[in-house]
Specification:
Helices cover 15% and strands 22% of the residues. It has helices spanning 16-19, 110-113, 129-138, 154-179, and strands spanning 2-4, 11-13, 24-27, 34-37, 199-202, 209-212, 218-228, 234-235, 239-244, 250-256, 262-263, 268-276, 284-289. The protein is flat and about 130 Å long.
Amino acid sequence: MIIACPACTTRYAVPDSAIGAEGRTVRCAKCRHSWFQDGVELALAPVTPPPLPLPPPLAVAEPVVAAPPARAPIRTPAEAPPPPLAPEPWKQPEPAVAPRRPVAAVYFDEARDSEPPLAPAAPRPRLPGKVEDEFAASSSRFDHQPPFRPRRNPARLWMTAAIIFAVVCGGAAAAVARYGLPTWMPLAHSTFAGTQPDLVLQFPHNRQDRRTLPDGTEFFGVSGAIVNVGKERRSVPSLLIVLRDTGNRVVYSWEVSPAKRVLAPGESEPVIEAVTDIPRSAKFAEIGWKPG
């Protein structure tokens, strides 16, 4: 179809399918004017529906004439059989006895029908040396049979247990060597760390104060000093004060951080600590360097 721009009258030849039957908005390529272009009416050819297929013819069944019922022959009283006689009540019917069959005489010939005697089994060839002993030990009449349980070998069980124990011990030793003992073990770590070079702890036992206050509070106090006996400056780590009972069991502990962290040669740092609300079983204190 041919369309023309209403603004500049420029004409364009476009296919009918581009506009469609309902129309669409188009724009002029020359003056950029847009307008709605109506579509062309397409003549639709009448569609004739295909003829429907005819149903198949119905089969007509032929009527079946039933035969007339057979009638019983009519007998005269003279031809009718007499009715069966009822057995007398005082007489019992005799049981039926099956006829006996003749028994054929059967004769056996011992020389012909008897089974031949079994030949003695051939002796098993003897195996040489140690193989014969092992075979004799393995072919005992007490060997395992399906109804019985298999025999256990104690030597093999002990060997298996020893191998498993060795593997477990080796793995545990390797783990301890690499990661150290676990913290839940009593020998996993000591209560205090090792000694510090040139640093001496002076906490005499007579300067430990253990008493109960008037209000019932349990009090424990310690006092002493850290002395640098060397010729170089030393860093002072933290202290650990542990309270023990009469059974030497740890019942309470706390950490003490000295006020001065570095001591010059010959210098000392006093330490005075006291705690309350301690267990009543605490009897004496031990002072050492904090581990870790």
